[in-house]
Write a structure and sequence with these properties.
Blueprint (H helix, E strand, L loop, with lengths): L1 H31 L2 H7 L6 H8 L8 E7 L5 H11 L7 E7 L3 H20 L3 E7 L3 H10 L11 E6 L11 H7 L8 H11 L1 E12 L9 H8 L2 E9 L15 E8 L6 E7 L8 E6 H4 L16 H10 L5 H4 L2 E4 L11 E2 L7 E4 L4 E2 L2 E2 L11 E2 L9 E3 L3 E5 L12 E4 L8 E4 L3 E5 L7 H11 L2 H10 L7 H5 L6 H9 L8 H14 L1
Helix pairs in contact: 1-4, 1-5, 3-4, 4-5, 6-8, 11-14, 13-16, 16-17
Length: about 525
């Protein structure tokens, strides 16, 4: 027993020594590579603690593992996978790893890492072979899946795929979009393209563990991807970080990321473990087990993924489900502001004049109402008449405005305010593109409905619910359309309780709770 314990300690020490060498290489390469070029390629190298955390999620038990590392970089994820397999009680007999990397500057480092993986595997009694493919994974995989005659088919499906895919938007008519359309996937970012191709290359029962932005979980841009992915895959583990800036601290990335493990299987009955921690090195995990149907609701046409790492979130979600109405039921609509300022420069005016109309920016939203003009703002306050100006205006009336973006330090994601025509005397008004506005067929709302709707949107209930399915600071009109709303008469009742100033947050929450659910 003593000899066995000593052997395990030696193995652990060897694993850490081997990973330390890979991490040292990663840090050195990171310093030498130009940040701008890495950003253009969507490269964000995976730190060792993060890579190990991901590798530990796999539950594979096959004797021979065929592993895919797509967009491998210097091989940090491959190294973490090998290190984790070495220290398991049920080790595989053999690992066959395929690593794709397009950046020629990294190929030598990747080869060196995988040679270290070979040595470390053999020391643990695991046969190891690898293949480095210096090609664009998305192109090679998509062409193979589409049956391109000039691209060698990837014959053997993979048992495991471990990914930190590149993050970069891809244009509608780009080569990447055309390649992905050929396999039935419409998506606007490289990271979901990589996930889609990797998923298609998995064997039945195969597992994928990936770290990605959380943005694919909701919104119209990623809805086709969610349908594509969830047709074949089921989540088994989802992890979120409390702090947005910790996962890729070296790159100063503020994107909210998640790590997930999904299995290529059709059964939705299995449980999903949802967990959270402050950062990858924080082992004080908070976790809970839910049904897959609680993560992705059956019957939801948009397939929004609700990530709720604590039990309090269930109560919030159940409260929102009790609400009576959709926007369509209420006869309301929400649109994005029409004024894109760089396209309307010739119409913008710093201060209002005799013939101008008010131009409302997010900075004009103050304490639940629009305060205009803004004396302390650098933004224009008015729109002058001119070619195209009429198309940018809406008629006088009450509107509810919601900021489309919030700064990382802001306490709230959803911030709403009432545009009150009695406070801003004008026959028409223009809303800038960083605002969403609620209206009735392009015109204003009744005053009490506008105030009630703004109060509801500013509640902690709505803000907390929004965070369950949105991992970014952007609030799109589509997100607002997806919400449930109180019935018309409840909005009227709530609006009648709002005076010339909005109450503080605690009082507002009590008011919303009382009127919406008990009034």
């Amino acid at each position: 027993m003593a000899n066995k314990t000593l052997l395990e300690q030696e193995r652990l020490h060897a694993a850490h020594t081997f990973l330390d060498a890979v991490e040292e290489t990663r840090c050195g390469v990171l310093k030498r590579l130009e940040r701008r070029r890495r950003a253009l390629m969507g490269q964000f190298f995976t730190p060792a603690p993060l890579a190990l955390f991901m590798a530990g999620m796999f539950e594979v038990r096959q004797p021979v593992l065929r592993v895919l590392d797509a967009g491998a970089g210097i091989g940090s994820l491959s190294a973490a996978f090998v290190a984790d397999m070495r220290r398991r009680t049920h080790r595989p007999q053999a690992i066959s790893l395929t690593a794709y990397e397009i950046d020629s500057r990294l190929i030598g480092h990747l080869q060196a890492t995988l040679e270290l993986c070979r040595t470390a595997s053999l020391e643990a009694g695991i046969q190891f072979e690898f293949r480095v493919i210096e090609e664009d994974f998305l192109e090679a995989g998509a062409r193979s899946l589409a049956g391109d005659l000039f691209t060698p088919r990837i014959e053997e499906p993979f048992d495991c795929a471990i990914l930190n895919p590149p993050y970069r938007k891809i244009r509608s008519q780009s080569r990447e979009r055309k390649l992905l359309r050929a396999i039935g996937l419409e998506t606007s970012n490289l990271y979901t393209g990589f996930l889609g191709v990797a998923m298609k290359l998995l064997a039945p029962g195969g597992e994928i563990v990936a770290i990605t932005p959380r943005s694919f979980c909701n919104g119209p841009y990623f809805e086709p991807f969610r349908h594509f992915f969830l047709k074949d895959m089921r989540f088994r583990r989802v992890h979120v970080f409390d702090a947005r800036d910790r996962a890729f601290a070296d790159d100063e990335v503020l994107q909210e990321n998640i790590i997930f493990r999904a299995v290529k299987i059709s059964d939705r009955s299995d449980d999903v473990v949802v967990s959270s921690s402050r950062d990858p090195g924080d082992f004080a995990l908070r976790s809970r087990t839910i049904k897959h149907d609680d993560l992705v609701r059956p019957g939801d046409q948009q397939l929004i993924i609700h990530i709720v790492p604590d039990g309090d979130g269930d109560a919030i979600r159940h409260q929102m489900r009790k609400l009576d109405s959709t926007l369509e039921d209420l006869g309301l609509a929400v649109s994005t502001g029409r004024v894109v300022d760089f396209r309307a420069k010739h119409l913008l005016r710093r201060q209002p004049g005799a013939e101008t109309v008010p131009l409302i920016y997010p900075c004009h939203l103050q304490r639940g109402f629009v305060e205009w003009p803004g004396a302390g703002t650098r933004k224009p306050n008015a729109l002058a008449p001119g070619p195209g100006a009429e198309d940018l205006l809406v008629p006088r009336g009450y509107y509810v405005l919601v900021k489309r973006f919030s700064a990382k330090e802001e306490r709230r994601r959803v911030a709403a305010a009432v545009y009150d025509p009695l406070r801003v005397p004008s026959d028409s008004v223009a809303f800038e593109n960083h605002l969403n506005f609620y209206h009735i067929q392009g015109s204003g709302l009744p005053a009490s409905v506008a105030r009630g709707l703004a109060a509801f949107l500013n509640s902690t209930l709505v803000d907390s619910y929004f965070r369950q399915f949105s991992g970014h600071t952007q609030v799109n009109a589509a997100d607002l359309r997806a919400l449930r709303y109180p019935a018309w008469e409840r909005l009227v009742m709530l609006g009648e309780r709002i005076g010339e100033t909005f109450p503080d947050q605690e009082e507002l929450d009590r008011l919303v709770e009382g009127v919406i659910y008990h009034g």
